[in-house]
């Protein structure tokens, strides 16, 4: 006998993905879930939690989710809850379309041609943080990169130990037969298949003509040295090119994509509801409250919180730990306001130091992007085939050439010499490092990584309606800057100074990347898709331009890579490290940091998938401490 069965409320909710908040409320009313509380009101909240997580961004929500399975956790996010915001949820509308989550910080004047440049850096401020607005390109650190991180005094952070944490976060969607036929591939053993973060190839994956042109031209420009990769996340992505996967949830039933931000992975879905989790939005953490133990160690006891809209400040207490996850731009500022940082600097602002830790805010670094490159399509090019008919498509082909692929053996050995004889003076004088050893050690590790298998640059091709963009990104910058508050007023942004391109080797890499961009535009079959004078039209130096001409162009056009890291680095304390391999702030008993600020070297070509690994590893270590192991 056949009967008609009504879909369960859970099924309705999964199908109506855009209405998740309403679904969660419905399910809660039906008594089907014990829902996480998301609120912007403090009056009804408890004042004490086992854990407090500062920030509600990419890493924060992942850590909070894992801790809240068995503990009470309060997350405090400065920005709003934008669960139903269509710009954020739809992967294809986020680029270039502002949302209430898009924010910019004005960087300190950076090096430019003939003087300095004032450049803003974009970041996300809402639940999910920057994962709610980013470009969703999925890439992982390399084996060589994680070896360098481990060698900075971080046992347990090599590729083999780190991989399981990235796998735990992930549900990888293998390419479907069409995507496979179009070039998408994967290696199953390096992926996870039941974690919260959806990772899949985009739909549609490619614009066929551009895909072919990009692959063939990459091959020619790098003289066949850059080979098709079976999987860009296998740890050996240097010297390869491939179609990218993205952090996107692909829903088989609906045949549609949705951004898999941290919020959509670890917070909103029904199966991620946590009765112990409270998320307070629209509130800023001004300071972390501390007490000093008998032995001189500092214990975090809670946080001082203020509503963004104005109103009375509140205090929340933590009985176990405080986890700082406000991102590479803001976490150092919160520590500094709390009296943790360079004691002399803090005193100059009238802040009483509770912990002298000179590395707070130092070792700040970001990749650069050469983005201002938009090559106009030739009238003869079949626009539909080249650009997918004017639809927004995600990155089509990405290439990760190594130093030897890009510079040849003479260039590589010249760069190696520069790296191994690096002068730390400028970084020291600007406060970018706290000891010259910090830079020479990092430079030697970067040189080793390049010798093994680390990408020197990343190049990707993306189509627009009438032009093709070729992006080049430096991957492992050596210039070091600072994040520093200049007032105790918590509503004022810190001074973020990336010191882009101030180290000679970074200019060498940028010039090499720019030269490859020029070569690509004049190399068939890619060049055949473009107008005849595409280089001049795009303002890019001609092939054969002098080094000075190329440097001038680089200095006039580069933009922030929006992958800032390192401002509370995980490395030895003597080198200016801020956190131990257990992510505990040195000199504290229970203050951890889990966000991009702990990453000591830019070994994640794109940061997000690696940061989910950091979050999973952080949560595991915190839970081990709670269990007394
Ligand atoms: C435009 C853009 C494009 C990008 N593209 C990619 C990409 O394609 N692929 C990729 O892998 N990565 C990409 N990234 C980088 C990646 O998104 C970030 O590195 C990553 O999300 C950072 O995670 P986080 O947890 O360190 O910080 P965030 O996710 O930024 O979270 C920090 C959170 O802390 C909150 N906060 C700050 N101060 C306070 C305070 N005082 N109190 C309370 N809350 C506070 C902020 O509002 C924010 O929500 C991109 C980033 C941007 C901005």
Automatic annotation (TrEMBL):
Catalytic residues, chain numbering: 563 (proton donor), 606 (proton acceptor)
Gene3D superfamilies documented for this protein: FAD/NAD(P)-binding domain (3.50.50.60), Glucose Oxidase, domain 2 (4.10.450.10), Glucose Oxidase, domain 3 (3.30.560.10)
InterPro entries, alphabetized: FAD/NAD-bd_sf, Glucose_Oxidase_domain_2, GMC_OxRdtase, GMC_OxRdtase_N, GMC_OxRtase_C
Positions bound to FAD: 58-59, 285
Molecular-function annotations in GO: flavin adenine dinucleotide binding; oxidoreductase activity, acting on CH-OH group of donors
UniProt keyword list: FAD, Flavoprotein, Glycoprotein, Oxidoreductase, Signal
Domain Glucose-methanol-choline oxidoreductase N-terminal: 327-341
Keyword Signal among UniProt keywords: yes
UniProt cofactor(s): FAD
PANTHER family referenced in this protein's UniProt entry, alphabetically: GLUCOSE-METHANOL-CHOLINE GMC OXIDOREDUCTASE, GLUCOSE-METHANOL-CHOLINE OXIDOREDUCTASE N-TERMINAL DOMAIN-CONTAINING PROTEIN
Similarity comment: Belongs to the GMC oxidoreductase family.
UniProt name for this protein: Alcohol oxidase
Organism encoding this protein: Lentinula guzmanii
């Amino acid at each position: 006998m056949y009967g008609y069965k009504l879909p369960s409320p859970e099924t309705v909710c999964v199908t109506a993905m855009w209405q998740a908040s309403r679904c969660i409320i419905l399910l809660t009313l039906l008594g089907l879930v014990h829902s996480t509380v998301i609120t912007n009101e403090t009056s009804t909240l408890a004042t004490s939690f086992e854990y407090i997580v500062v920030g509600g961004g990419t890493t924060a929500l992942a850590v909070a989710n894992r801790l809240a399975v068995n503990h009470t956790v309060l997350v405090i996010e400065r920005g709003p809850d934008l669960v139903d915001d269509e710009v954020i949820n739809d992967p294809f509308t986020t680029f270039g379309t502002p949302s209430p989550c898009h924010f910019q910080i004005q960087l300190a004047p950076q090096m430019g041609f003939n003087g300095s440049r004032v450049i803003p850096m974009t970041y996300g401020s809402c639940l999910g943080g920057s994962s709610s607005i980013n470009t969703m390109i999925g890439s992982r650190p390399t084996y060589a990169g994680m070896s360098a991180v481990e060698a900075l005094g971080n046992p347990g952070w090599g590729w083999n130990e780190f991989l399981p944490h990235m796998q735990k976060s992930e549900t990888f969607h293998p390419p479907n037969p069409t995507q496979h036929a179009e070039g998408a591939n994967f290696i199953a053993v390096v992926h996870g298949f039941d974690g919260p973060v959806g990772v899949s190839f985009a739909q549609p994956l490619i614009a066929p003509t551009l895909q072919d042109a990009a692959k063939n031209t990459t091959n020619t420009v790098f003289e066949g040295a850059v080979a098709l990769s079976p999987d860009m996340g296998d740890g050996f992505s240097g010297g390869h090119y491939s179609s990218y996967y993205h952090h996107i949830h692909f829903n088989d039933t609906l045949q549609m994509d949705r951004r898999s931000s941290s919020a959509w992975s670890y917070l909103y879905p029904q199966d991620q509801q946590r009765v112990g989790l409270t998320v307070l939005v629209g509130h800023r953490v001004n300071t972390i409250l501390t007490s000093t133990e008998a032995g001189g160690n500092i214990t975090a006891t809670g946080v001082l919180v203020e509503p963004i809209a104005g109103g009375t400040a509140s205090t929340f207490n933590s009985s176990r730990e405080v986890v700082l996850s406000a991102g590479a731009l803001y976490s150092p500022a919160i520590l500094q306001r709390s009296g943790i940082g360079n004691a002399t600097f803090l005193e100059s602002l009238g802040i009483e130091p509770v912990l002298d830790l000179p590395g707070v805010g130092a070792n700040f670094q970001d990749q650069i992007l050469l983005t201002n490159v938009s090559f106009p399509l030739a009238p003869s090019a079949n626009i539909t085939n080249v650009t997918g008919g004017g639809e927004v498509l995600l990155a089509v082909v990405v290439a990760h050439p190594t130093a030897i692929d890009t510079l040849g053996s003479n260039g590589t050995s010249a760069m190696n010499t520069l790296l191994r004889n690096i002068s730390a003076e400028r970084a020291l004088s600007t406060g970018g490092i706290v000891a010259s050893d910090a830079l020479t050690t990092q430079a030697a590790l970067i040189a080793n990584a390049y010798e093994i298998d680390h990408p020197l640059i990343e190049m990707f091709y993306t189509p627009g309606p009438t032009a093709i963009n070729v992006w080049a990104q430096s991957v492992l910058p050596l210039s070091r800057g600072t994040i520093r508050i200049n007032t105790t007023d918590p509503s004022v942004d810190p001074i973020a100074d990336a010191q882009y391109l101030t180290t000679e080797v970074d200019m060498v890499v940028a010039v090499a990347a720019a030269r490859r961009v020029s070569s690509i535009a004049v190399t068939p079959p890619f060049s055949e898709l473009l107008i005849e004078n595409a280089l001049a039209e795009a303002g890019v130096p001609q092939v054969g331009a002098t080094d000075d001409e190329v440097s001038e162009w680089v200095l006039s056009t580069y933009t922030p890579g929006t992958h800032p890291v390192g401002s509370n680095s995980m490395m030895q304390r003597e080198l200016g490290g801020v956190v131990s391999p257990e992510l505990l702030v040195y000199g504290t008993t229970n203050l951890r940091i889990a966000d991009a600020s702990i990453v000591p070297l830019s070994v994640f070509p794109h940061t997000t998938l690696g940061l989910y690994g950091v979050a999973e590893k952080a949560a595991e270590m915190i839970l081990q401490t709670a269990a007394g192991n």
